[in-house]
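S.,

Sequence below, as promised.
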Amino acid sequence: MADETIKTLAEVEENHIRAVFERVEGNMTRCAEALGIDRRTMYRKARAFGLKSRMPQGRPPWRRVEVLEARVAELETELIALGGPQLR
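The prediction came back faster than expected:
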């Protein structure tokens, strides 16, 4: 242990944030949640450490499709419950 360099708290923080950022594949929101910090704080720290989000801005296209598919499924369930025809 005498040969080990003692890291500063800032170095430990940056290393941990980088490790979590990689684990969540560059998703800033998930990284902030995992670290227990506000998303704005995560963006500020990411900018300071030179990290770039790998997620497209706004809702990703695949997420919009998931939301629409879920809503269609809800509406189909309601339609069947009301005695309507099954669509699929």
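The helical segments are 9-23, 28-35, 39-49, 61-81.

Coffee later?
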